[in-house]
Amino acid sequence: SAVISQKPSRDICQRGTSLTIQCQVDSQVTMMFWYRQQPGQSLTLIATANQGSEATYESGFVIDKFPISRPNLTFSTLTVSNMSPEDSSIYLCSVSDIPNTEAFFGQGTRLTVV
Amino acid sequence: AQSVAQPEDQVNVAEGNPLTVKCTYSVSGNPYLFWYVQYPNRGLQFLLKYITGDNLVKGSYGFEAEFNKSQTSFHLKKPSALVSDSALYFCAVRDRECSGNTPLVFGKGTRLSVIA
Known about the structure:
CATH topology of chain A: Immunoglobulin-like
Oligomer: heterodimer
Distance between the termini of chain A: 37 Å
CATH superfamily of chain B: Immunoglobulins
Largest sheet of chain B: 6 strands, mixed
CATH class of chain B: Mainly Beta
CATH architecture of chain B: Sandwich
Number of strands of chain A: 11
Helix content of chain A: under 10%
Order of helices and strands of chain A: EEEEEEEEEEE
Radius of gyration of chain B: 14 Å
Number of domains of chain B: 1
CATH topology of chain B: Immunoglobulin-like
Number of helices of chain B: 0
Largest sheet of chain A: 7 strands, mixed
Structural class of chain B: mainly beta
Shape of chain A: globular
Number of strands of chain B: 12
Number of helices of chain A: 0
CATH class of chain A: Mainly Beta
CATH superfamily of chain A: Immunoglobulins
Strand content of chain B: over 45%
CATH architecture of chain A: Sandwich
Number of domains of chain A: 1
């Protein structure tokens, strides 16, 4: 199993500003995933982050808006840039190193943009 | 493409009664299937998974799920519901035919409310 520390747990931000979310894992993992969960909805994958390479973004998500860093095998950041109220969501990081095992999740970052 | 359907937005059940939360999936190959639970202001907690073998899998907190390949279903069940089971439940799938480690695809979630 993996223990994931994600911070901040919540934040209220002004529109037009940026927020960086950190995700720390207690073991080395190859792949980390960032999800967005809008109010009352399911999880939508934003991007996959591999160490040493550029993140791979899903349709509808772009690097300029959601830049991701993956400097080593235990850490990643997601930045939500130039925020608008539509970015208000829960953002979750996840790791899963072997295909037939479950994914593990951080506790999430609840972002409110005002 | 992979997808998961959870046809019920909300399931209400009386405490002590059995509960079922429905899930059907679509993958091009064979699936790995998962159930997660999300309590208010918390991240996702893993409940159980189907990888291979026995179609009935048992997980945390007394939950179980049955893999039915012909119906492409993986319904979550519990014989006797508790008020503390009230939460948001997500079914997820990964296609085992995909090379490497791919992210999970989630259903929209089902809110379970257990009434005392």
